[in-house]
Design goal:
Blueprint: H1 10-17, H2 20-24, H3 32-35, E1 46-50, H4 56-63, E2 68-73, H5 76-85, E3 92-96, E4 109-115, H6 124-134, E5 135-146, H7 148-151, E6 178-184, E7 187-193, H8 196-204, E8 208-214, E9 237-244, H9 248-253
Bound molecules: S-adenosylmethionine.
Residues 3, 7, 21, 51-54, 56, 72-75, 78, 98-100, 115-117, 120-121 line the site of S-adenosylmethionine.
């Protein structure tokens, strides 16, 4: 499915709305316990959330003192839910746009955040250029993305043995970066595979200081949910916190 269609497709959107993380918010997101400690103190801060979806993290930021929050998403249906959930927070604004198309004045934000959206972008370098263009020096970049072990082969599905238990998770074409077609919510979904090197070395050589790298495991409280124990067999997500070094934005635009 083309990037314009995916989350605005009524069938896909309906299925997404049934997921635990859609019904329960951050409490239903298996990585939240690991992601929350990576976020800086948001009191008085300006945050940009790229691929904000329902806006759960925007609301969380506003509740934790952020002075201005901008959520960007391609999907009008996702943004309609986000606007509804954020009605009590005038400091949150939503923009309907592709992440690839947004631009903001220099030093507009103290935190750039993105949860599970960057694997929809074809270029991580272009994403870093966007962050450098609008984050203040010394500001934070925190993101989660599907783990390279999870995205490498393509389908992102377990293969089952004759007894019905999942075989070892397939990892293949690891160094062959680029487009994959995964199955997600019973639909073919275009995502982009990148190596761990591209993510981490991209940050280190792109003007950022790495602060934290986490491969989250599902928390004990969710282990009894269907399929959750299998999530202990391979990493599904990569969480990263980094800080923009002073002078990085200027050096890169020269
Ligand atoms: C898996 S959802 C995550 C939503 C939210 N960040 C969260 O963690 O709950 C991915 C979101 O990214 C959005 N998205 C995907 N590709 C995008 C793009 N190129 N530009 C803007 N948003 C995009 C989708 O519309 C969707 O809302």
């Amino acid at each position: 499915m083309a990037r314009e269609d995916l989350y605005d497709d009524p069938v896909f959107f309906q299925r997404y709305s049934q997921m635990d993380r859609s019904r329960e918010g951050l409490a239903g997101a298996g990585e939240w316990e690991a992601l929350e400690p990576l976020l800086p103190d948001l009191r008085g801060k300006r945050m940009l959330d790229l691929g904000c979806g329902y806006g759960w993290h925007c609301v969380w930021a506003a509740e934790h003192g952020a002075s201005a929050v901008t959520g960007v998403d391609l999907s009008e249906r996702m943004l309609a839910v986000a606007r509804e959930k954020s009605a009590a927070f005038p400091q949150i604004v939503y923009l309907r746009s592709a992440i690839e198309d947004v631009s903001f004045p220099p030093e507009s934000f103290d935190l750039v955040f993105s949860s599970l959206a960057l694997h929809y972008l074809s270029s991580f370098q272009a994403f870093l250029a966007l962050v450098r263009s609008c984050l203040r020096p010394g500001g934070d970049l925190v993101f989660s993305v599907e783990h390279p072990v999870f995205t490498a082969a393509g389908p992102q599905e377990w293969i089952y043995g004759l007894d019905g238990t999942p075989l070892p998770f397939p990892v293949d074409r690891y160094f062959d970066e680029g487009q994959r077609t995964a199955r997600f919510l019973d639909a073919p979904v275009v995502k982009y595979h990148r190596t761990l090197t591209t993510y981490l070395d991209g940050l280190l050589t792109g003007g950022f200081r790495l602060l934290r790298v986490v491969e989250p495991q599902p928390p004990q409280r969710l282990l009894d949910r269907p399929g959750m124990r299998d999530e202990l067999r391979r990493p599904m997500m990569l969480l990263v916190a980094a800080r923009l070094e002073t002078g990085a934005a200027e050096r890169r635009t020269r």
